[in-house]
Specification:
alpha+beta, six-stranded mixed sheet, three-stranded mixed sheet, globular
């Protein structure tokens, strides 16, 4: 899914973001860009979209005009409206007020838009980055893969059943750019063959050192 994150201090301009896991958008707290990649502002109709220069041909559909270009380092600190700021879990965590662009050397432009949405409670790499950046962490799922309380209409829904409702919600909000089927590797349980998702939990470990 390609969607727009409206920038707060740059009226009429949006970040164009891409993800293959739409359920994680519920827990977004930041957007990451590569500090050294060039990013452009592309005008398409009534929208002005920031994305990496190398991703333009694959990401955009239709005619466009390039209005501006900056290295990713100059986007650092820009703030934006997240796709689910209205959710109680977003409000409680402080994420709705903290959405900002951060720098990450792992961002690429071979796929997507060169702008990666960050949800520390939904992925291992995102968690490490979020911890290093001091970002809020939102963990949306219980042990059964069902959305917990605080996620409004998503609460009680299994994560594998949320894609279409999320697409409809994004379209209703007017921030859905386009949908695209994308084939990629994904972890699957070797026993039940069900798709796996990342879930953040607290764990305790017992030291098994030498007895005194």
């Amino acid at each position: 899914v390609f969607l727009r994150f409206p920038l707060r201090n740059r009226p009429g301009e949006d970040l164009l973001v891409w993800t293959t896991t739409p359920w994680t958008l519920s827990s977004n707290v930041a957007a990451a860009v590569h500090p050294d990649l060039p990013y452009v502002l592309a005008e398409q109709g009534e929208h002005k979209l920031w994305l990496s220069k190398g991703a333009v041909a694959n990401a955009l559909r239709g005619d466009y005009a390039i209005l501006d270009e900056k290295p990713g380092s100059e986007l650092e600190g820009w703030t934006f409206d997240g796709p689910f700021d209205e959710l109680p879990a977003q409000q409680k965590s402080g994420a709705a007020a903290a959405h900002r662009v951060i720098l990450w050397d792992e961002v690429g432009e071979a796929e997507g838009t060169g702008i990666v949405h960050i949800a520390p409670g939904c992925g291992a790499e995102d968690y490490v980055l979020g911890r290093d950046q001091g970002l809020p962490i939102i963990a949306p799922l219980n042990e059964e893969g069902v959305f917990v309380a605080g996620f409004d209409w998503l609460t009680g829904i299994n994560v594998h059943e949320t894609a279409r409702p999320i697409f409809a919600n994004l379209e209703e909000k007017g921030i859905l750019y386009r949908l695209q089927d994308h084939t990629h590797r994904y972890p699957v349980c070797w026993r039940c063959h069900q798709e796996l998702v990342f879930r953040l939990v607290d764990e305790w470990f017992i030291s098994m050192g030498e007895p005194l």
